[in-house]
Every structure is written in structure tokens, then in C-alpha cells.
Amino acid sequence: MDARIVGWGHTPFGRLDDTLEELITKAAREALEHAGVEARDVDAIYLGHYNGGLVPDGFAASLALQVDDDLRFTPATRVENACASGSAAVYQGRNAIRAGVAKTVLVIGVEKMTAKDTKGVTEALMTASYQAEEGGVSFPQVFGRFANAYFQKYGNQSEALAHIAAKNHANAIKNPLAQMQKDVGFEFCNTVSERNPLVAAPLRLTDCSLISDGAAALVMVSDDMAQGFERAVRFRAGVQVNDFLPMSRRDLLKFEGPALAFARAYEEAGVSVGDLDFAEVHDCFTIAELLVYEAMGLTAQGQGARAVSDGVVYADGATPVNLSGGLKAKGHPVGATGVSMHAMTAAQVTGEAGLMQKSGAELGCVFNMGGSGVANYCSILDAEKTT
Amino acid sequence: MDARIVGWGHTPFGRLDDTLEELITKAAREALEHAGVEARDVDAIYLGHYNGGLVPDGFAASLALQVDDDLRFTPATRVENACASGSAAVYQGRNAIRAGVAKTVLVIGVEKMTAKDTKGVTEALMTASYQAEEGGVSFPQVFGRFANAYFQKYGNQSEALAHIAAKNHANAIKNPLAQMQKDVGFEFCNTVSERNPLVAAPLRLTDCSLISDGAAALVMVSDDMAQGFERAVRFRAGVQVNDFLPMSRRDLLKFEGPALAFARAYEEAGVSVGDLDFAEVHDCFTIAELLVYEAMGLTAQGQGARAVSDGVVYADGATPVNLSGGLKAKGHPVGATGVSMHAMTAAQVTGEAGLMQKSGAELGCVFNMGGSGVANYCSILDAEKTT
Fold this sequence. Notes:
The structure is a homodimer of 387-residue chains.
Chain A: E1 3-10, H1 20-35, E2 44-48, E3 76-80, H2 85-98, E4 104-112, H3 118-126, H4 131-134, H5 139-154, H6 158-172, H7 186-190, E5 198-200, E6 203-204, E7 213-222, E8 233-242, H8 256-269, E9 278-281, H9 286-295, H10 305-309, H11 326-329, H12 334-349, E10 363-370, E11 375-383
Parallel strand pairs in A: 2-3, 2-4, 9-10
Antiparallel strand pairs in A: 1-7, 1-8, 4-7, 5-6, 8-11, 10-11
Helix pairs in contact in A: 2-12, 6-9
């Protein structure tokens, strides 16, 4: 028995008026409607949500029961793995189905970040580092350290990073749910200026993902029920790998945990990187996307920039990365991100991605990450033919 | 395939010098040793942890990898359901085994509460209420409302509540890990005094559980491996029921979600309340234990006090409740509590409960609750004969 994704919902990402509860409700109702599932048929709910002090709602799982009166008495559980909390919820939902304890599962990812000012958000996210050694180090600074280590060994990659930012912004123009639907251009991203300052050298503002509100949701059912649904997206692989939290215990030149997650996922699915039609990967910072190119095997170590210069990862390349605009331009409401990635990927493989659609896309990859390569989730999805 | 509990660990509960990481490490290492399991054989880790601002560690799942170098790359996930976060971790760990994605699972529950002063703890726990309607209402006040509603309908139960407090304190004398190993006596609990003030009328200080640091851990394996272990505790039932978060949507005269959880657990196990040899239940406030007597069917609605006056729930009664001392006297490090309850219950059914041991105890019940009957977990455990 395994889970199939049969529907999804997705609020716009951005600075929204909605409360946490309203975001949950909008995404969940849309997912249930898209799947054609009634709330009373939901056996379990999993909520991916980071919080970290961003909102005062400290017990969010049962907030999901506010979606529909018929959800009363449904088991609801919050899961958290920093910026991979959304995928954590997807994976626990899948486990519930594989365990035979649920036939129909509602997965919701949500974050409300703009209730705080930028400093408050930076502080809330900072708690996802190893406090004993890295207390007070912001996430731009964490990834700035990765970038510095990489630049020192392999040379300055600022241009490649600017190309990554520009690519994801260009892609987001075709995503009506993206926070920034604006082609900012390579030159702007590549130039330090008043409007594009260094945030944590060598990372510029355009190297950083956005601060966002938003929610995404999935409905999953057990595969023996899949025939009854309009679509049924299959997990060809789903691999979770956690790494040590302290940066001092990890190699800053490469993403070891992510690389292992990809390798295991390819093995589980019986595919190689060349078989992927596209990937949605965790570009919390452009240096992260570059390191993911290497972790996923698109290039050798130290040569991530080639994925951009060769054009492989562009929308018209062999393996487009972040057709949705990624965290960079779609936005990054941290608890929602992993669920959004699974929804965007499911939409591609079922041909429902609208303007973002890659023609003939059949096999897609999700890579969602908590911290700097600490909680790593790699899924490979395809669409099973049903009715 | 199902999970068996093959070992456990448990720090003392109380005001401890240990950090969150040290608490995790102590309980986890003890559990691995008790089970006779090597860290390298652990397939997945689940961490039950509330946090809510109590400590700055916002990404605690991967802290569990600090327990042993061999845990590197092991999937680790934090789960949260307020004061039932520990049981949430137990249930997700069990799901991972039932899903066939893990053979050996390490479950840890942990909380560090004394890093804050009492006001800070009260505020951190307050976020587990429905903020839109109950923001600023403390948990003693929440349960004070339940007590007031109950007293208004069924008469003043202050004496019964004092008997519950005194019972749990008396039981804790036999628990070397309990925070308060002191028989405070019925008279003290029943008298409002300078040392036992009203915290939220009609609840007195002795009607409230303790503010605690602590951790507990379990090792679970799939049942096909159970023969190789010294002990293997079986889930005869494991039921989760969530209820609406807002108090305005629930009946304050009874615990509806908990009652449903018990009813389903009895059905799943094929037992009735009379078959239970003992129970560890969620006495965050004495009024909660009284309402649980009714939810579990020890008495009819409105007659919970009879369970005390008839002596049923005392250590020498037919169905002893909280032989460990309960949250009231053992302590209540919120994320640890559910794991601790499962560990204490497992110890009883395997005859390893030391001075707390009820002679011949074979079938035990755990009831762990997040909020005021919102996230409800009911487990029924017995010991499978192995070697």
C-alpha cells in the first residue's frame, strides 16, 4: 500500500491579510475540492508549520479542524523540521497511509511571516541554527559562510548566483501564485547597488529568498482507491536524510546530506538524474541552488556554475530547475514550502501547471531542505494513469 | 507488522542543570542501552517537543543526532501536539514501523521549562490555546473554567480534587524519578493557605501540575524482530482523536474527545475499562483527572468523585491511576510527558516498575492530552512473551 496525491490547493504567496487559520482553511478547502474529497472522509491531518515565534499560535494542528465542521475528532498532528516542515508533513501523511491507519490524508503546510518585521523574521529563523555554537548567526550569514568557503576553493561564483536568481525570477512570471512576478534581469542581480545591497557578503539581496505568508495543501489516498480519482500522482521515491545540526560537524564545501538523499532517491526510483524532466529544489539562497546542482549530480563538485552556463537548468534546458520561480521568486513561507513543491511537481506531471507547464513532463523531483543541508527530503514523482 | 517497545530511558524530572541537548542525550542513550540496541541500527528518530518559546532551540529534531556519531544521516522528525507532543512522537514512530519504512525507531520526548521564570512558562503554554478567542487566558484559567462549569452543575468537588492531588503525591514517593517525592497530605491540598493559594479559582496550587525539565525515550522495533529482545511491549490499541481548539466549540462539562479516544481504544483492544490493571492519565490539573475518570468510564458523568471516594483509583484499588505520581507529582515537562507515560506503563506490564510495581499488572492504559481535551491519545499496552 502506498499513497497517491489526488488533489492540491495553494494560496498566493506574498504579504497577505489572512491569518494563519485563514491560510490553512483556504489551501485545505481548495485541495479537498480539487481532489473531489469530502471533509468527512479525511482520516488524518498532518500540518507542516515552523512558527519559531512568528505567530502566537503555538498549537496549530487542531486549527486545521476549523477547515470544516466534519473534521471534528480527526487526528491532526503538527510536524516540524525547520524549512522542510512541509515535506515532513507530506512524509508523515504518506506513512499513515502506508501503515494502513488512514486511507485519506489531508496535508497542509503553512507559515505567516509578515506579522513580524524583517528583523523579527530573521530572529525567528535564526533559532533553526545550533544555538550552542551559532546563536546570533543569521541564515544569510550561514549561507554566506557556505558561499565564502566555496568561492575560496573554486573561485568567485557571483555571476553564476546572479544567473540563478534571474532565472528563477524569469520563471515566476508564469506562476500566478508567485510573490514576485517580475523579471528583474541578470544585470540587476549581478550588481551591488542601493536597491541590491550585500546582505551577508558575498550574498546580495537578490541572492536571498523572500519573506512570505502562504499555505499549500495536498490530499493523498491509498493506491487501492486511486482509480476513482481524476489524477493520482505516485511517489517513485521519498527519502529523508538528516545531518548533524552544528556547522562545525559538516563540510561547508558540499551538501553531504542532500547528496545522500538524492542518491538514495534515484536508487529507490531506479532512475538517474538524466531521467528527470524537471526539479523543484530548495533555493533559500542562490548558493544553496548551486550546491544542490552538485548534490543532485547535474555537475561535478566545484562545477555547479556549469549547470547555468550550459543552460541545462533553464526552462528550455534538459532539466529545468524551479519552473515555479522557486523560493527566490515564488516565495518561501517556510512551513508551506515543501507542500508547495510537491503540489507544483504534481501539477507538472499531470499536465496541470498552466503557463509553467513543461511539455511532456512525466518525471519530477522535489528537494526540500531544513537548515543548511540538515533536514533533507528528496521525492521523485510521476503520474499514474488512472481512469 | 506492528511496533513493540523493547527499551526505555527516563531522566529525573525537576529543575535540572541539563540543557535541552543534554536531556535528549541522557534519555536516548539510556533507552538504547536498556533495549540493547546500537545507535547505528536506528532507522528513524521522532522527537516530541513543545517549545513554544521555552528555549531558543527552534530546530530540535536534528539535535537528537548529537546522541551518537552513528546517528548521522538518520531521518529525524519533530512532532508537536501541545502537551501530547510526546505521544505524537510515539504514534509517528509506530506508524513508521507499520509502514515498513523503519525496523528500529528511537522516540524521544523532551522539554526544558525552568530556563524561564514561572510567568514565562505560563506565557509559553498560553500559546496552546485558541488565540483568536482565548489569547491571554492562562492554562490554570482554562481548567478553572472547566472546574467552575462542573461545580455549578454537579456541586463543589474541591475535596475530591484535593484527594486526587494527595493520591498522586503519595504515589510519587515510590517513583525515584519524580520531581516531588513528598507526601503532602489531603489536609494541605484541601486548604487554601499562603502556601497553597488559589491559582485560578476554584483551583489551588496543589490542583496544578509542576513546571519541569526532563526527557524520556523509547526504542521500538518491528514485531518480527521482537524475539531477540529481553522484553517486547505490545500496542493492544493506539487511538488519536483531535477536537476543535476553541473552547467555545466544546462542552465544558465533559471531555468528549478523550471519551471517544477511550471508547475506540477499548474497542480496538477488545477490552473494557474493568480489564485495565492500571492507567497513567493526564492530570495537568486535578479537575482533568476527575473528568478523565468519567471519559474512561470509571464512573458516570457528574460522578467522577466516586472513583476517589470508592478507592478504585488508589494504588491498592481495582484500577490505580497514576502510580508514577502523574503530572501532579512526577512532573510535567510537556514534550516528555507522553513518552514518559508510555515508558512507565511499559515498565509496569513487564514487571520493571520497582517500588511503583503493581503486582501482576498485565494490561495498562495511557491517556495523554494536549490542551483541554483537544489532542487526545489513548494507548493500551501489554507485554508479549518473547524469549
